[in-house]
């Protein structure tokens, strides 16, 4: 199941990958506003060039501004290899520091405990805030296990397996199935179909949908509910033994048993002492908050109007990992609780970099390869594009919306209601 789609800004924004040399292209007009911006306003469309190298620096800056990014990079030359990019970073960014690793684990345990206490004392009208904080803290648990899965938490793999299993269990996320499929995502980032984390739906798939299926996909992947789409990914990819090789199955089953142990001991105990309301209050809502961040981080990092998913024959590892991954800044407290998971470009250049070295690695990448990187601050325009416009794969346009053939009231209403910026 493809759980990736997105598109652009406020309206129908059909992304047309054409050269931008025409008067309706991106070149700034005399009044200081781009012709493209007028096109977006009047025709509800904008132009994405076949290559970012077709644009001047000023045009790319304007395109970035219009789409909600602080910068959009040039296209990385196909002659650049991923090994070249990896070797350009200083050796110290790959070094594992056990003290920092265990402190991050302790930080997540303390922050989650504190947020659960906050939930326990918060009046009903402040519970959404407490749940949001708890969901963010819960995401930190995932990131600790995430580093363990990438073998960047500890120099002992057994310790990493134990840590990963322990921190994933309260999320009911089986560690080993996730590790296997997530490593596949890293090996095939932005490769159409092969990328197991997030990729646009192809039109061939939609032809098999009946009216009910089409309606469900539109409802869950064409609205803000898309920020919880990782729940579907969690259910589909991690609990089917048939998706794993014979030699992987024993470890997969152990991970399932760890989740089952939590589900059938900790959760019943929570119900016993706090009732079913307590289960919702202290576990389900933070768990949903975690999935909000899981989905949102993944979508922002790997889906942008100007970044294509490619078929295997056209795929380039360096282009996908360096130029095809988006760096996004979030409020500091979110980055702290989530252990800088948003500092994502170096993580895709090499998943062996521990989270606490990602900023230094990013500085190095900016110095050596910054002209090819895409960056942004978390903002409403990007999210609105993701919800309403970036849905289906298109070889020429990168993405198109579910209603690309004819505007549908369901999407038209949302485009009118949701502001372009907050």
In a few lines, what is going on in this structure?
This is Chloroplast delta-12 fatty acid desaturase. With 422 residues, the chain is mainly alpha-helical. The chain has helices at 35-43, 57-67, 82-87, 98-121, 127-149, 157-168, 175-187, 203-206, 211-221, 230-237, 249-302, 317-323, 332-337, 345-349, 358-369, 380-388, 409-417, and strands spanning 14-17, 45-48, 326-329, 374-377, 392-394, 398-400.
Shape: globular
Q: Strand count, sense and closure of the main sheet?
A: 2 strands, parallel
Strand content: 5-15%
Give the helices and strands as they follow along the chain. Answer: EHEHHHHHHHHHHHEHHHEHEEH
Q: In terms of structural class, how would the helical and strand content be classed?
A: mainly alpha
Terminal CA distance: 32 Å
Q: What is the mean pLDDT? A: 88
Percentage of residues in helical conformation: 40-55%
Give me the Rg, rounded: 22 Å
- Tally of helical runs: 17
The tally of beta strands, per DSSP, is 6
- Runs with pLDDT <50, length 5+? 1-45
Strand neighbour order, sheet with most strands: 1-2
GO molecular function: oxidoreductase activity
Organism: Chlamydomonas sp. ICE-L
GO biological process, one term: lipid metabolic process
InterPro entries: FA_desaturase_dom (IPR005804), Fatty_acid_desaturase (IPR012171)
